C-alpha cells in the first residue's frame, strides 16, 4: 500500500423479513425460545470501512443513530479487536437506507457487515462459522445476517438451518413513523392471546417444492398479537396491502409490514398506492438468495479514501 493512502472496503448490509415467527416459551436466561423462517431482501445499507490508526470511529448518514459503543457496528469492530488482540483501527461509515427500529435487522446487518468486512480488510482468515459465533455475542439476528438467504432460526434466533431457496418474489416494505421496542414486545407477549401459530414444517415443504402460493398463504407472526393492538398504523398498512393483492405480514417485532407479490410492476403499483394512503417509509425490494460473493456481491476494496 502506498504511504498516505488507507485501505477502504465497502460492504452491502441487507435487511431481512420473517416469513414465519413463533415463540415457544421463555428460557432460563431470560430470552424467549423462538422458531422462525427468515429471508434476506435487497434493501440494504452501505457500510464503508477505512483503516485508521488504533481506534474505532463510527459516522452515519442518519443523525438519529448513535455513533458510540451503543451502535452494533462499533461493538462488532470492538469485539474483533478484543477477541483477536488486534491494534488496528477503523473508521466505519453507515449509509442508512434500512429504517431504524423497524423489525428488519438493520443494526444486526450493519454489525454483520463490519465482521465480514474487517475479516477481509485485516486479513484475519476467519471462517463463516467463526464469524457467526462472534456475531451471536452481539445479537440474535447477527449470525443470520452474516449468512443470509433463506433459513430456519431457532434457540433465541442464533441457531440456523439452511432451507431451500425461496422462489423469487418482490417485496413491498412499509414502516410507519413509530418506533417499537423489541424488548417491550417480547415482555408483553402472551401465548393465550395468539389466534394462530405458524405451520413451519408446511412452510419448509412449500420452500422445497418452490411453491410460491403455498409460502404466501402460510405467512404468520405471533408477535402481531402484541404490536398490532398497540399500533393501529400497523393494522392499517397490513389491511391495505392485503386489499391491494399482496400476501402481507409484520416483520419481526414490527412495526414494518411487508407484502409479497410475484412481479415488480405490481410491487411498484402497491408502493405508489401506499404512499398516497398512509404516513410511512415505503420501499420496493426483492428476495436475495445469498449474501456475499456467491451471487456476485463481492466486497469492494480499494486503496484510497
Which helices and strands occur, and which strands form pairs?
Elements: E1 8-26, E2 32-52, E3 56-60, H1 72-84, E4 89-95, H2 106-121, H3 128-136, H4 142-147, E5 150-154, E6 159-162, E7 170-176, H5 182-187, H6 200-209, H7 212-217, E8 220-221, H8 224-230, H9 232-243, E9 247-250, E10 257-261, H10 264-277, E11 280-286, E12 300-302
Parallel strand pairs: 1-8, 3-4
Antiparallel strand pairs: 1-2, 1-12, 2-4, 2-5, 5-6, 7-10, 7-11, 9-10
Catalogue the unreliable spans: 293-305
Count, helices: 10
Compute the CA-based radius of gyration: 19 Å
The outline comes out as: globular
What features would you highlight for this structure?
305 residues; four-stranded antiparallel sheet; 12 strands; globular; alpha+beta; disordered C terminus; eight-stranded mixed sheet
Note down, in words, how this protein is organized.
The protein has 305 residues and is an alpha+beta fold. Helices cover 32% and strands 29% of the residues. It has 10 helices and 12 strands. The strands form 2 sheets. Strands 1, 2, 3, 4, 5, 6, 8 and 12 form an 8-stranded mixed β-sheet that branches. Strands 9-10-7-11 form a 4-stranded antiparallel β-sheet, covered by helices on one side. Helix 1 runs parallel beside helix 2 (106-121), helix 2 crosses helix 3 and helix 8 crosses helix 9. The two termini are 13 Å apart. The relative contact order is 0.19.
Amino acid at each position: 500500500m502506498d504511504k498516505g493512502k488507507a485501505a477502504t472496503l465497502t460492504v452491502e448490509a441487507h435487511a431481512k423479513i420473517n416469513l414465519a415467527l413463533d415463540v415457544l416459551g421463555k428460557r432460563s436466561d431470560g430470552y424467549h425460545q423462538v422458531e422462525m423462517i427468515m429471508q434476506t431482501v435487497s434493501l440494504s445499507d452501505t457500510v464503508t470501512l477505512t483503516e485508521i490508526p488504533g481506534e474505532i470511529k463510527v459516522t452515519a448518514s442518519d443523525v438519529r443513530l448513535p455513533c458510540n459503543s451503543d451502535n452494533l457496528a462499533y461493538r462488532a469492530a470492538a469485539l474483533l479487536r478484543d477477541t483477536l488482540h488486534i491494534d488496528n483501527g477503523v473508521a466505519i461509515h453507515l449509509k442508512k437506507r434500512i429504517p431504524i427500529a423497524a423489525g428488519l435487522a438493520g443494526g444486526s446487518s450493519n454489525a454483520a457487515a463490519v465482521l465480514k468486512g474487517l475479516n477481509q480488510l485485516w486479513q484475519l482468515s476467519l471462517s463463516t462459522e467463526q464469524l457467526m459465533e462472534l456475531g451471536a455475542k452481539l445479537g440474535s439476528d447477527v449470525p443470520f445476517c452474516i449468512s443470509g438467504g433463506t433459513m430456519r432460526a431457532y434457540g433465541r434466533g442464533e441457531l440456523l438451518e439452511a432451507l431451500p431457496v425461496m422462489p423469487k418474489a418482490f417485496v413491498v416494505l412499509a414502516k410507519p413513523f413509530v418506533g417499537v421496542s423489541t424488548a417491550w414486545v417480547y415482555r408483553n407477549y402472551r401465548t393465550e392471546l395468539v389466534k394462530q401459530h405458524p405451520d413451519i414444517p408446511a412452510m419448509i415443504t412449500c420452500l422445497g417444492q418452490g411453491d410460491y402460493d403455498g409460502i404466501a398463504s402460510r405467512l404468520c407472526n405471533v408477535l402481531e398479537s402484541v404490536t398490532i393492538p398497540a399500533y393501529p398504523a400497523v393494522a392499517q398498512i397490513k389491511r391495505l396491502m392485503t386489499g391491494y393483492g399482496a400476501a402481507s405480514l409484520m416483520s419481526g417485532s414490527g412495526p414494518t409490514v411487508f407484502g409479497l407479490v410475484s412481479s415488480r410492476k405490481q410491487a411498484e403499483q402497491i408502493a405508489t398506492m401506499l404512499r398516497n394512503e398512509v404516513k410511512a417509509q415505503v420501499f420496493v425490494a426483492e428476495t436475495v438468495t445469498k449474501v456475499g460473493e456467491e451471487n456476485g456481491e463481492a466486497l469492494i476494496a480499494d486503496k484510497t479514501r
